[in-house]
Amino acid sequence: MSIIRITKHFDFETAHALYGYDGKCKNIHGHSYQLYVTIVGTPINDANHVKNGMVLDFGDLKKIVKSEVVDIFDHATVLNANSPHKELAAKIESHSSRVILVDYQPTSENMLVDFADKISKKLPKSVNLHSLKLCETNNSHAEWFAEDQ
Ligand SMILES: Nc1nc2c(c(=O)[nH]1)N=C([C@H](O)[C@H](O)COP(=O)(O)OP(=O)(O)OP(=O)(O)O)CN2
Ligand SMILES: [Zn+2]
Question: Which residues of this protein are catalytic (predicted)?
């Protein structure tokens, strides 16, 4: 049976700041992030199976990525907990705004590592996470590949 990759695309709006960065991205600013999630597996080959012919139902992949990433990061501000932004986060949150304090500098690279971990843990055993692509702007993106890790 053939091994196939399937990909689903998501978008979400998130603000972040790169504390200590030597450029304008040290300020809080936002992106319309685009995330491509690719998984790999063998399509189910069972005429009696409701998911016959699928590596994983796109709908099931959507549920996992939405609950683990999109619904959490969408319209939130991501700040580095290992920086003075921790205090800023508390202030923003006190005004009922959604803040995610992460234990890393919230670059595209580090967000991908976080997303890969969260998504991998929720995938069924029959499939594997192959790669992620996170576009921060229309001309900048980072990629995570399982085979590189
Ligand atoms: N390797 C990385 N470099 C930068 C990241 C990152 O996550 N990884 N992030 C930023 C900023 O968050 C910034 O928002 C994006 O930077 P950049 O692509 O430079 O954005 P510009 O709109 O200024 O780029 P143009 O090419 O001028 O459109 C910075 N670097
Ligand atoms: Zn940015």
Answer: 25 (proton acceptor), 75 (charge relay system), 136 (charge relay system)
